[in-house]
Specification:
Blueprint (H helix, E strand, L loop, with lengths): L1 H17 L21 H10 L1 H14 L5 H20 L10 H58 L6 H29 L3 H8 L9 H31 L12 H4 L9 H20 L1 H8 L12
């Protein structure tokens, strides 16, 4: 049995060496594999007297090898090895009954380890979400510039000429959507403040150890990008509904016809400022408050009152 165990241990170590740089251990060690030489009987005694603590150390040792940050993986594993070594070399382990002081020591170390690993999971969630928001924001900037330049150039190549009202409507849509994306970023950052542990519990469905922290980081990164694009799309949808008069909620302080010069009439500079301010505000609120935007989208179309008499 010893030879088989030694061969398996050597094989596992060889597998780990072949995948250096991996985020987590592909072949995690068990608690028995870190028992110091000559303490096999003490480990059996430890399991008989302190079965709950042994189980907790086994679970925490496995979780430490799946931690998100490398320094957490190293420090948590070293702590488990140290705690187990202290317990096995303690003279009170030879007593017939569990010692209350040794039990208190083990419980305290286990609680500390659990707290460090919980913080590691929260770090994975926060870092993944922040990275996703940054990626989404960069994509939002690209969506502000690329469609504008490419679309205008394409229309020019096709011989389509945009008049003043067309250009202002297009710019209003792009800016409203872009500000909506940044509103979504701020919304997520506000929710994230002090609630990373709640996001971690949501990802794991309230149970520890179900989702590896690295997987949570990737999941939250995708969610960050998703939130930015949802804010962008909601702001655009609200813009088209309100500017097209399909849904009447607010009366815009300025329209494109009031901004652009007409026959014998010059355009108003103040109307242009009001136009930008109004649609930037609408876009930001639509991205920041999804419920408000969905409320606008779920409204019935405007009904024109019938003229009597």
């Amino acid at each position: 049995m010893t030879e088989n165990g030694g061969g398996r241990r050597t094989w596992w170590r060889g597998m780990r060496e072949s995948v250096q740089g991996a985020d987590t251990e592909l072949w995690p060690e068990g608690l028995m594999e870190i028992v110091p030489d000559g303490f096999d009987r003490d480990y059996v005694q430890f399991g008989e007297l302190y079965p709950e603590q042994q189980l907790q150390l086994q679970l925490l040792y496995g979780a430490s090898q799946r931690a998100f940050e490398r320094r957490t993986r190293v420090s948590a594993r070293v702590t488990v090895v140290r705690v187990l070594g202290n317990a096995l070399s303690d003279a009170r382990l030879r007593e017939a009954k569990p010692n209350e002081h040794l039990t208190e020591y083990l419980d305290q170390e286990i609680a500390d380890l659990r707290g460090r690993l919980a913080q590691d999971s929260a770090t994975a969630v926060s870092r993944g979400l922040n990275l996703g928001l940054a990626m989404g924001s960069a994509a939002g900037l690209a969506l502000l510039i690329v469609p504008l330049l490419w679309g205008v150039g394409l229309l020019g190549a096709l011989g389509v000429t945009l008049n003043c009202t067309n250009r202002w409507s297009l710019l209003g849509a792009v800016v409203c959507g872009g500000v909506g994306a940044f509103g979504a970023v701020l919304s997520v950052l506000v929710r994230l403040r002090g609630s990373a542990d709640q996001l971690a519990r949501r990802q794991t469905n309230g149970r520890e150890g179900i989702v590896v922290p690295g997987q949570m980081a990737r999941s939250m990164r995708h969610e960050g990008v998703y939130r930015v694009f949802v804010g962008w799309i909601l702001a655009l949808a609200v813009y088209f509904l309100l500017s097209g008069g399909i849904v009447t909620v607010f009366d815009p302080p300025a329209t494109t016809t009031e901004i652009c010069p007409a026959a014998g009439r010059a355009g108003s500079d103040s109307a242009g400022t009001e136009f930008w301010g109004f649609w930037c505000a609408i876009g930001f609120v639509a991205g920041f408050n999804e419920r408000w935007a969905f409320g606008i989208l779920s409204r019935d179309s405007t009904k024109r009152p019938s003229k009597s008499g």
